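Why run this: before we spend reagent on co-expression, it is cheaper to look at a predicted model of the complex and decide which construct boundaries make sense. The entries below are exactly what would go into the expression plan.
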Amino acid sequence: MSKFGRKGKKKNPEISTASLPDIIFMLLFFFMVVTVMREDDPKVKISKPNATETEKLEKKSLVDYINVGPPVNKILGTEPLIQLDDSFADLSDIRQWIEDNRERRDEAEKPAITTSLKVDKDTRMGIVTDIKQELREANALKINYSVNKGSAIDN
Amino acid sequence: MARRGLQEINAGSMADIAFLLLIFFLVTTTMDQDIGILRQLPPPVPDDMEKPPEVKQRNVYEVLVNSNDQLLVEGQRMDIRDLKAGAIEFYTNPSQSPDLPQLTRVSRTVVQDNLNKLRQALSEDPENKEIKDKIETWEDKLIAIELIGDYSELPSSALISLQNDRGTSYDMYISVQNELSAGVNELRNTLSEEKFGVPYSALNTSDDNDKPKIKAIRAVYPQRISEAEPKDLGTN
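The model came back. C-alpha coordinates follow.
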Protein backbone atom coordinates (compact mmCIF):
# COMPACT_ATOMS: atom_id res chain seq x y z
CA MET A 1 0.00 0.00 0.00
CA SER A 2 2.60 2.41 1.09
CA LYS A 3 4.56 1.47 -1.96
CA PHE A 4 1.96 2.91 -4.32
CA GLY A 5 1.37 5.97 -2.20
CA ARG A 6 4.95 6.94 -2.36
CA LYS A 7 5.05 6.58 -6.09
CA GLY A 8 2.25 8.99 -6.62
CA LYS A 9 3.88 11.70 -4.58
CA LYS A 10 7.29 11.47 -6.24
CA LYS A 11 8.00 14.44 -8.50
CA ASN A 12 9.78 14.21 -11.84
CA PRO A 13 13.36 15.38 -11.42
CA GLU A 14 13.81 18.83 -12.94
CA ILE A 15 15.93 19.12 -16.05
CA SER A 16 18.97 21.13 -15.18
CA THR A 17 19.11 24.38 -17.10
CA ALA A 18 22.55 25.21 -15.86
CA SER A 19 24.11 24.44 -19.24
CA LEU A 20 21.59 26.50 -21.20
CA PRO A 21 23.63 29.72 -20.90
CA ASP A 22 26.66 27.84 -22.18
CA ILE A 23 24.78 26.68 -25.25
CA ILE A 24 23.48 30.16 -25.93
CA PHE A 25 26.92 31.66 -25.45
CA MET A 26 28.29 29.20 -27.93
CA LEU A 27 25.70 30.32 -30.47
CA LEU A 28 26.47 33.92 -29.64
CA PHE A 29 30.18 33.47 -30.25
CA PHE A 30 29.47 31.66 -33.47
CA PHE A 31 27.48 34.60 -34.75
CA MET A 32 29.99 37.12 -33.54
CA VAL A 33 32.73 35.36 -35.47
CA VAL A 34 31.03 34.65 -38.78
CA THR A 35 29.12 37.88 -39.25
CA VAL A 36 30.14 41.46 -39.74
CA MET A 37 28.51 44.64 -38.53
CA ARG A 38 25.99 46.08 -40.92
CA GLU A 39 27.47 49.29 -42.15
CA ASP A 40 24.70 51.31 -43.60
CA ASP A 41 20.99 51.16 -44.05
CA PRO A 42 20.18 50.14 -47.58
CA LYS A 43 18.12 52.84 -49.18
CA VAL A 44 18.14 51.18 -52.56
CA LYS A 45 16.99 47.72 -53.45
CA ILE A 46 19.79 45.58 -54.77
CA SER A 47 19.66 42.06 -56.02
CA LYS A 48 23.13 41.21 -57.16
CA PRO A 49 23.86 39.36 -60.39
CA ASN A 50 25.50 35.95 -60.36
CA ALA A 51 29.03 35.12 -61.37
CA THR A 52 31.43 32.24 -60.98
CA GLU A 53 34.86 33.81 -61.34
CA THR A 54 34.80 35.66 -58.07
CA GLU A 55 37.41 36.76 -55.64
CA LYS A 56 36.98 37.54 -51.99
CA LEU A 57 37.54 41.08 -50.84
CA GLU A 58 40.45 40.94 -48.49
CA LYS A 59 40.37 43.94 -46.20
CA LYS A 60 36.90 45.09 -45.31
CA SER A 61 38.13 48.28 -43.71
CA LEU A 62 39.64 49.35 -47.03
CA VAL A 63 36.50 48.91 -49.06
CA ASP A 64 34.04 51.68 -49.87
CA TYR A 65 30.64 50.84 -51.20
CA ILE A 66 28.66 52.52 -53.91
CA ASN A 67 25.12 51.21 -54.04
CA VAL A 68 23.06 51.62 -57.16
CA GLY A 69 19.51 50.47 -57.58
CA PRO A 70 15.87 51.46 -57.51
CA PRO A 71 14.98 53.25 -54.26
CA VAL A 72 13.26 51.24 -51.54
CA ASN A 73 10.92 54.15 -50.96
CA LYS A 74 8.47 53.96 -53.86
CA ILE A 75 7.72 57.68 -53.69
CA LEU A 76 11.14 58.34 -55.20
CA GLY A 77 10.27 56.47 -58.36
CA THR A 78 11.80 53.41 -59.93
CA GLU A 79 14.81 54.92 -61.68
CA PRO A 80 18.09 53.66 -60.17
CA LEU A 81 19.69 56.03 -57.68
CA ILE A 82 23.17 56.17 -56.19
CA GLN A 83 23.63 55.71 -52.48
CA LEU A 84 26.90 56.68 -50.84
CA ASP A 85 27.22 55.80 -47.15
CA ASP A 86 23.81 56.59 -45.72
CA SER A 87 22.34 58.99 -48.20
CA PHE A 88 21.44 59.40 -51.84
CA ALA A 89 23.97 61.19 -53.95
CA ASP A 90 24.55 62.62 -57.38
CA LEU A 91 27.19 61.55 -59.82
CA SER A 92 29.07 64.75 -59.11
CA ASP A 93 29.31 63.91 -55.39
CA ILE A 94 31.37 60.80 -56.03
CA ARG A 95 34.66 62.57 -56.54
CA GLN A 96 34.44 64.43 -53.25
CA TRP A 97 33.33 61.28 -51.49
CA ILE A 98 36.32 59.33 -52.77
CA GLU A 99 38.58 62.18 -51.70
CA ASP A 100 37.06 62.21 -48.18
CA ASN A 101 37.46 58.48 -47.84
CA ARG A 102 41.05 58.72 -48.89
CA GLU A 103 41.75 61.39 -46.30
CA ARG A 104 40.51 59.13 -43.50
CA ARG A 105 43.06 56.42 -44.17
CA ASP A 106 46.72 55.98 -43.51
CA GLU A 107 49.14 56.89 -46.22
CA ALA A 108 50.36 53.30 -46.47
CA GLU A 109 46.90 51.92 -47.02
CA LYS A 110 45.85 54.32 -49.74
CA PRO A 111 46.90 52.23 -52.74
CA ALA A 112 44.87 49.28 -51.47
CA ILE A 113 41.56 51.11 -51.24
CA THR A 114 38.94 49.31 -53.28
CA THR A 115 35.62 50.71 -54.39
CA SER A 116 32.96 48.08 -54.47
CA LEU A 117 30.05 48.62 -56.81
CA LYS A 118 26.89 47.03 -55.53
CA VAL A 119 24.56 47.37 -58.44
CA ASP A 120 21.12 45.95 -58.95
CA LYS A 121 21.11 43.51 -61.82
CA ASP A 122 18.30 45.20 -63.71
CA THR A 123 20.17 48.49 -63.86
CA ARG A 124 21.21 49.74 -67.28
CA MET A 125 24.91 50.19 -67.90
CA GLY A 126 24.59 53.92 -68.58
CA ILE A 127 24.68 54.96 -64.95
CA VAL A 128 27.37 52.39 -64.15
CA THR A 129 29.55 53.69 -66.96
CA ASP A 130 29.11 57.23 -65.66
CA ILE A 131 30.15 56.13 -62.19
CA LYS A 132 33.17 54.35 -63.58
CA GLN A 133 34.21 57.48 -65.46
CA GLU A 134 33.90 59.48 -62.23
CA LEU A 135 36.02 56.93 -60.41
CA ARG A 136 38.66 57.15 -63.10
CA GLU A 137 38.74 60.91 -62.78
CA ALA A 138 39.05 60.54 -59.02
CA ASN A 139 41.85 58.03 -59.52
CA ALA A 140 40.06 55.30 -57.61
CA LEU A 141 41.04 52.62 -60.06
CA LYS A 142 40.65 49.46 -58.02
CA ILE A 143 37.05 48.42 -58.31
CA ASN A 144 35.01 45.39 -57.53
CA TYR A 145 31.70 44.38 -58.98
CA SER A 146 29.85 42.82 -56.09
CA VAL A 147 28.09 39.61 -57.10
CA ASN A 148 26.63 36.43 -55.72
CA LYS A 149 28.10 33.05 -56.40
CA GLY A 150 26.20 31.27 -59.13
CA SER A 151 26.11 30.51 -62.80
CA ALA A 152 26.40 33.69 -64.83
CA ILE A 153 24.77 32.24 -67.89
CA ASP A 154 21.38 31.91 -66.25
CA ASN A 155 21.39 35.57 -65.29
CA MET B 1 22.41 31.20 10.37
CA ALA B 2 26.04 30.32 10.14
CA ARG B 3 25.18 26.78 9.26
CA ARG B 4 23.40 27.77 6.09
CA GLY B 5 26.63 28.34 4.16
CA LEU B 6 26.98 30.47 1.07
CA GLN B 7 23.90 30.85 -0.99
CA GLU B 8 24.30 29.90 -4.62
CA ILE B 9 23.83 32.67 -7.14
CA ASN B 10 20.91 31.90 -9.34
CA ALA B 11 22.24 31.33 -12.82
CA GLY B 12 18.83 30.98 -14.40
CA SER B 13 18.81 34.48 -15.81
CA MET B 14 22.19 34.01 -17.41
CA ALA B 15 20.47 32.32 -20.32
CA ASP B 16 18.19 35.33 -20.76
CA ILE B 17 21.11 37.68 -20.84
CA ALA B 18 22.89 35.51 -23.37
CA PHE B 19 19.75 35.34 -25.49
CA LEU B 20 19.48 39.09 -25.46
CA LEU B 21 23.05 39.45 -26.65
CA LEU B 22 22.52 36.80 -29.28
CA ILE B 23 19.48 38.55 -30.67
CA PHE B 24 21.31 41.86 -30.66
CA PHE B 25 24.06 40.38 -32.80
CA LEU B 26 21.61 38.66 -35.09
CA VAL B 27 19.96 41.97 -35.82
CA THR B 28 22.97 44.23 -36.21
CA THR B 29 25.23 42.01 -38.28
CA THR B 30 25.09 40.61 -41.76
CA MET B 31 26.21 37.25 -42.98
CA ASP B 32 26.76 38.07 -46.62
CA GLN B 33 30.32 37.60 -47.63
CA ASP B 34 31.59 40.18 -49.97
CA ILE B 35 32.69 38.51 -53.12
CA GLY B 36 33.00 40.05 -56.51
CA ILE B 37 34.84 40.47 -59.75
CA LEU B 38 37.91 42.61 -59.22
CA ARG B 39 38.92 44.96 -62.02
CA GLN B 40 41.41 47.71 -62.53
CA LEU B 41 40.14 50.80 -64.31
CA PRO B 42 42.43 52.51 -66.78
CA PRO B 43 43.78 55.84 -65.56
CA PRO B 44 42.06 58.95 -66.93
CA VAL B 45 43.18 59.97 -70.38
CA PRO B 46 44.68 63.44 -70.57
CA ASP B 47 43.16 65.58 -73.31
CA ASP B 48 46.44 66.25 -75.03
CA MET B 49 47.49 62.64 -75.25
CA GLU B 50 48.63 61.55 -78.65
CA LYS B 51 46.76 58.79 -80.37
CA PRO B 52 47.97 55.37 -79.40
CA PRO B 53 49.47 53.34 -82.23
CA GLU B 54 47.01 51.29 -84.18
CA VAL B 55 46.80 47.73 -82.99
CA LYS B 56 46.61 44.99 -85.57
CA GLN B 57 43.12 43.72 -86.11
CA ARG B 58 44.13 40.15 -85.37
CA ASN B 59 45.46 41.11 -81.96
CA VAL B 60 42.17 42.49 -80.72
CA TYR B 61 39.28 40.33 -79.66
CA GLU B 62 36.39 42.66 -80.03
CA VAL B 63 33.33 42.04 -77.87
CA LEU B 64 30.36 44.35 -78.30
CA VAL B 65 27.15 44.18 -76.31
CA ASN B 66 24.15 46.13 -77.49
CA SER B 67 21.18 47.45 -75.59
CA ASN B 68 19.22 44.26 -76.24
CA ASP B 69 21.96 42.30 -74.51
CA GLN B 70 23.07 40.71 -77.74
CA LEU B 71 26.70 39.93 -78.34
CA LEU B 72 28.75 40.76 -81.39
CA VAL B 73 32.12 39.10 -81.17
CA GLU B 74 34.68 39.73 -83.91
CA GLY B 75 31.85 40.86 -86.16
CA GLN B 76 29.72 37.77 -85.60
CA ARG B 77 26.64 37.24 -83.47
CA MET B 78 27.49 34.98 -80.58
CA ASP B 79 25.70 33.33 -77.72
CA ILE B 80 27.01 34.06 -74.23
CA ARG B 81 27.58 30.32 -73.77
CA ASP B 82 30.24 30.29 -76.47
CA LEU B 83 32.12 33.32 -75.20
CA LYS B 84 34.36 31.39 -72.83
CA ALA B 85 35.48 29.04 -75.60
CA GLY B 86 35.99 32.06 -77.84
CA ALA B 87 38.26 33.72 -75.30
CA ILE B 88 40.29 30.55 -74.91
CA GLU B 89 40.65 30.27 -78.68
CA PHE B 90 41.88 33.86 -78.81
CA TYR B 91 44.50 33.19 -76.14
CA THR B 92 45.84 29.99 -77.63
CA ASN B 93 45.11 30.24 -81.37
CA PRO B 94 45.20 26.46 -81.75
CA SER B 95 44.63 26.44 -85.50
CA GLN B 96 47.25 29.12 -86.30
CA SER B 97 44.46 31.19 -87.76
CA PRO B 98 45.60 34.42 -89.44
CA ASP B 99 42.68 36.24 -87.76
CA LEU B 100 43.88 35.44 -84.25
CA PRO B 101 47.08 36.65 -82.60
CA GLN B 102 50.32 35.05 -83.61
CA LEU B 103 51.97 33.44 -80.62
CA THR B 104 55.70 33.64 -80.25
CA ARG B 105 57.89 31.14 -78.50
CA VAL B 106 59.73 32.57 -75.49
CA SER B 107 63.03 30.98 -74.58
CA ARG B 108 65.57 31.63 -71.88
CA THR B 109 68.22 33.14 -74.15
CA VAL B 110 65.85 35.74 -75.57
CA VAL B 111 64.64 36.77 -72.13
CA GLN B 112 68.16 36.94 -70.74
CA ASP B 113 69.34 38.99 -73.70
CA ASN B 114 66.53 41.47 -73.33
CA LEU B 115 67.03 41.77 -69.59
CA ASN B 116 70.73 42.46 -70.04
CA LYS B 117 70.01 45.11 -72.64
CA LEU B 118 67.41 46.78 -70.46
CA ARG B 119 69.64 46.73 -67.41
CA GLN B 120 72.35 48.40 -69.44
CA ALA B 121 69.88 51.03 -70.54
CA LEU B 122 68.79 51.55 -66.95
CA SER B 123 72.34 52.07 -65.74
CA GLU B 124 72.64 54.90 -68.23
CA ASP B 125 69.31 56.39 -67.28
CA PRO B 126 68.52 55.21 -63.74
CA GLU B 127 65.34 57.29 -63.31
CA ASN B 128 63.54 56.06 -66.41
CA LYS B 129 60.29 54.53 -65.19
CA GLU B 130 59.46 53.00 -68.53
CA ILE B 131 62.60 50.92 -68.51
CA LYS B 132 61.98 49.87 -64.92
CA ASP B 133 58.51 48.64 -65.83
CA LYS B 134 59.88 46.76 -68.79
CA ILE B 135 62.53 45.10 -66.64
CA GLU B 136 59.81 44.01 -64.27
CA THR B 137 57.78 42.33 -66.99
CA TRP B 138 60.84 40.58 -68.37
CA GLU B 139 61.82 39.41 -64.91
CA ASP B 140 58.38 37.88 -64.58
CA LYS B 141 58.96 36.10 -67.85
CA LEU B 142 62.25 34.76 -66.55
CA ILE B 143 60.47 33.37 -63.49
CA ALA B 144 57.94 31.77 -65.81
CA ILE B 145 60.66 30.12 -67.85
CA GLU B 146 62.39 28.80 -64.78
CA LEU B 147 59.21 27.30 -63.40
CA ILE B 148 57.36 26.30 -66.53
CA GLY B 149 59.91 26.06 -69.31
CA ASP B 150 59.60 27.59 -72.74
CA TYR B 151 56.13 28.78 -73.54
CA SER B 152 54.21 30.54 -76.28
CA GLU B 153 53.39 34.11 -75.61
CA LEU B 154 50.69 36.44 -76.79
CA PRO B 155 51.92 39.57 -78.51
CA SER B 156 52.11 42.38 -76.01
CA SER B 157 49.43 44.34 -77.82
CA ALA B 158 46.89 41.51 -77.81
CA LEU B 159 43.83 42.24 -75.77
CA ILE B 160 40.17 41.56 -75.35
CA SER B 161 38.29 44.75 -75.95
CA LEU B 162 34.90 44.96 -74.31
CA GLN B 163 32.45 47.61 -75.29
CA ASN B 164 28.92 47.98 -74.07
CA ASP B 165 26.02 50.24 -74.76
CA ARG B 166 24.47 52.52 -72.19
CA GLY B 167 21.34 50.42 -72.45
CA THR B 168 23.03 47.10 -71.78
CA SER B 169 21.77 45.52 -68.59
CA TYR B 170 24.21 45.22 -65.73
CA ASP B 171 23.36 41.58 -65.53
CA MET B 172 24.57 40.93 -69.05
CA TYR B 173 27.68 43.04 -68.52
CA ILE B 174 28.66 40.96 -65.50
CA SER B 175 27.98 37.76 -67.42
CA VAL B 176 30.29 38.87 -70.21
CA GLN B 177 33.02 39.91 -67.78
CA ASN B 178 32.56 36.63 -65.99
CA GLU B 179 32.77 34.46 -69.10
CA LEU B 180 35.89 36.25 -70.33
CA SER B 181 37.54 35.75 -66.94
CA ALA B 182 36.37 32.17 -66.93
CA GLY B 183 38.24 31.54 -70.17
CA VAL B 184 41.50 32.94 -68.82
CA ASN B 185 41.07 31.20 -65.50
CA GLU B 186 40.49 27.88 -67.17
CA LEU B 187 43.71 28.21 -69.12
CA ARG B 188 45.55 29.22 -65.98
CA ASN B 189 44.10 26.34 -63.99
CA THR B 190 45.04 23.79 -66.64
CA LEU B 191 48.59 25.08 -66.86
CA SER B 192 48.99 25.21 -63.10
CA GLU B 193 47.57 21.73 -62.72
CA GLU B 194 49.98 20.43 -65.31
CA LYS B 195 53.08 22.11 -63.91
CA PHE B 196 52.48 22.39 -60.18
CA GLY B 197 49.79 19.79 -59.56
CA VAL B 198 47.31 22.26 -58.11
CA PRO B 199 44.81 24.51 -59.88
CA TYR B 200 45.69 28.18 -60.14
CA SER B 201 42.75 29.12 -57.95
CA ALA B 202 44.26 27.05 -55.12
CA LEU B 203 47.52 29.02 -55.13
CA ASN B 204 47.74 31.39 -52.23
CA THR B 205 48.75 34.99 -52.90
CA SER B 206 50.17 35.41 -49.41
CA ASP B 207 52.24 32.22 -49.50
CA ASP B 208 55.87 32.90 -50.41
CA ASN B 209 56.16 29.54 -52.13
CA ASP B 210 53.20 30.23 -54.36
CA LYS B 211 54.03 33.83 -55.28
CA PRO B 212 56.51 32.99 -58.08
CA LYS B 213 54.13 30.36 -59.42
CA ILE B 214 51.35 32.92 -59.61
CA LYS B 215 53.67 35.38 -61.32
CA ALA B 216 54.78 32.75 -63.81
CA ILE B 217 51.26 31.75 -64.74
CA ARG B 218 50.19 35.36 -65.02
CA ALA B 219 53.10 35.98 -67.36
CA VAL B 220 52.00 33.13 -69.62
CA TYR B 221 48.30 33.99 -69.56
CA PRO B 222 47.92 37.65 -68.70
CA GLN B 223 44.43 38.90 -68.09
CA ARG B 224 44.00 41.55 -70.75
CA ILE B 225 40.43 42.66 -70.68
CA SER B 226 40.20 46.26 -71.65
CA GLU B 227 37.15 48.41 -71.71
CA ALA B 228 36.86 50.85 -74.51
CA GLU B 229 36.01 54.46 -73.81
CA PRO B 230 32.23 54.52 -73.49
CA LYS B 231 30.20 55.49 -76.49
CA ASP B 232 26.70 55.05 -77.65
CA LEU B 233 26.26 52.10 -79.94
CA GLY B 234 22.77 53.22 -80.72
CA THR B 235 19.64 52.07 -79.01
CA ASN B 236 16.66 50.44 -80.54
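Residues 7 and 13 of chain A are 13 Å apart (CA to CA). The mean pLDDT of chain A is 83. Bring this page to Monday's planning discussion.
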